[in-house]
Design a protein that fits this description.
3 domains; D-Maltodextrin-Binding Protein, domain 2; 316 residues; 12 helices; 38% helix
Length: 316
């Protein structure tokens, strides 16, 4: 900023607009998210450029990109918004959000080795209660830095499975599931349970998802490594929802939650067999940042996720 008199020209709405414009990298999308018009966003962006002495957002090819100065200001802006939420968020305890009237845009990043019914049920529930909101579902992959995106408010909620969720985020446990194996109906493990030993499990050909963290093993392999074991993975896929079809057409072994596996036994020539290596239960969580912790809209969204998953969760 320039001299001290500039502070008299700064409004919290300008900080919010700056954070939204740089996050969206688009004036039109920022206007939609802020529920205002493009000319209004452009006018305030012009004020921001005068205050900072930097263009902030510039055209590059067919899109817009933030300048280095804008990127450097993102974390201070986020901190201001977090502090403002703490100071003035008493009305945001869930009473100020009207889902039936809202036109907010929600972003949820989720791993696709959840129960395959979770996201369809969630979309149906949200659209039934909040027909005017828009929902964007993002893939939770090893390349997606969900901690960074949560801290920048690029995403509202992250849903997945971790052995140890990151401690700096708010954590809501959703459900636990025991580990099982999905195999083709003609797999030796399905035909002869006595054949299915820990040694044969490790020697079998396995299919596995790509890890959530680049360069790190997945939950299953992390536990095996802690016991000095390693399985023989011959197929890695980013499309976990297609893994049961690959299992049905091969002698690959898929090791994951029993609830996920159970969705396919009636529609594919596959069956569930116990895993001969003991695993701790898989625990699924939803994670969110302090920035949205007190938001009425954020609380409502987290409640929808929790209620959908509780309704789908099967008893032991």
């Amino acid at each position: 900023m320039t001299d001290a008199n500039s502070f008299d020209k700064i409004e919290l709405s300008l900080v919010r607009l700056f954070h939204t414009v740089i996050t969206e990298r688009s004036i039109s999308r920022a206007a939609l998210r802020l529920q205002t018009t493009q000319p209004a966003v452009s006018a305030k962006l012009k004020r921001l450029r005068a205050l900072t002495g930097d263009p902030l957002l510039v055209r590059a090819g067919h899109g817009m990109v933030p300048t280095p100065a804008a990127l450097a200001l993102m974390e201070p802006a986020a901190e201001i918004l977090r502090s403002a939420q703490v100071m003035f968020g008493s009305r945001s305890r869930g009473l100020d959000f009207d889902p039936a009237a809202s036109t907010l845009h929600f972003r949820v990043a989720a791993s696709d080795w959840l129960d395959p019914m979770v996201l369809p049920e969630l979309v149906g529930r949200i659209k039934a209660q909040a027909p005017r909101v828009t929902l964007e579902i993002l893939p939770l992959t090893g390349e997606y830095d969900y901690r960074l995106h949560l801290s920048r408010a690029d995403v509202d909620l992250v849903v997945g499975n971790w052995l140890k969720p990151p401690g700096e985020l708010h954590i809501g446990q959703l459900f636990t599931d025991d580990v099982a194996c999905l195999v083709a109906a003609d797999h030796p493990a399905a035909r002869n349970p006595h054949w299915w030993t820990a040694e044969r499990y490790l020697e079998s050909e396995h299919i596995a998802p790509r890890p959530l963290h680049a360069g790190a093993p997945g939950v299953i392999d992390e536990h095996l490594a802690s016991r000095g074991m390693a399985r023989h993975i011959t197929v890695r896929t980013p499309h976990f929802g297609l893994a049961p079809l690959m299992v049905a057409r091969s002698h690959l072994v898929l090791t994951t939650g029993r609830q996920f596996c159970s969705r396919y036994v009636d529609t594919l020539p596959v069956c569930i067999v116990p895993c001969p290596v003991r695993f701790p239960a898989l625990t699924y969580y939803q994670l969110w940042h302090e920035l949205s912790h007190h938001s009425g809209a954020g609380r409502w969204l987290r409640t929808q996720v929790r209620d959908v998953i509780r309704a789908l969760a099967k008893p032991e």
